[in-house]
Amino acid sequence: MEFRDKILIGAATAFGALGYANTRVEDILQESGVSRPTFYKLFESKDDVFETLSAMHHADALERMHHALVTAENGMERLASVIEAFLRWRAGLGRLGRVLDMETRSPHSHLVRHREVVMKTLRDQWQHEMVAGGRPQVDPLIFEAFMAAAERVADTLPFDRAITETDIARRKAVLLRIVSATLAAADERTPALPLHPDHNAPRAPRAKKSSGKHRRVGAPPPPPGATSSRR
Known about the structure:
Tetracycline Repressor, domain 2; Arc Repressor Mutant, subunit A; 9 helices; mainly alpha; globular; 2 domains
C-alpha cells in the first residue's frame, strides 16, 4: 500500500473517531503509521487531507448513484436503486460519513461545494429522467427537501455495530415512501407505509375489565362496622 493511501485511511479513522476540529496531524500519523516528513511530502496539512477525503468520497457517491440511475429499468426501480446506492455509500463511510456531512453542510466551510456538486448533479439527472418519462418538472425545492430527509435518515445508521441488510432495507423503505408519495402521479399507487420494526413483537395482555364488584381505585374505605347494603 502506498503512503498516500495509508495516510488517507488513517485520516478517515482519526476524523471519524475524533471529529474534524479535534483531529491533529499527530492523530493521523498514529493511525496511518507514517512519519511526519512523509506526511508533509504528500499533504500540506490536516485540512488538505480532509479536503482530499471529501472530494474522493463525494465523487464516489456520484458514481454509485449515477450507475444506479442508468442501469435500472423503470422509474420506481430507478428511484429505489438510487436510494439504496446512497444508503450503502453512507454505510461504507462509517463514522467518517457524519463528520463529512457536518463539515460539508456548514455554511462557513469551503468544502460545502463538494456536497453542492453532488446535489446539483443528482437533481439535474432526476429532473431529466422525469421529463424523459413524460412527467412535468417539479420545483427543485422538493428535491432539496428529499435530500435533506435522506441525509437525516442516513444519520440514523448504527455505527456502534455492524450495519445489517435489515438496517439498509428499513431506511430504504422509509425514503422510498417519502419520495414516491411526493413525486407519484395522481393515478399511481405509492408504497405502503413502512411498519414499525417492533410490529411483530408480542403485545402485553390487556387488563381485565372491572366487574364492578371491587372498590373503585381511590375511593375511601368503608367506615368501621359498616355493612353492605347489597344482599
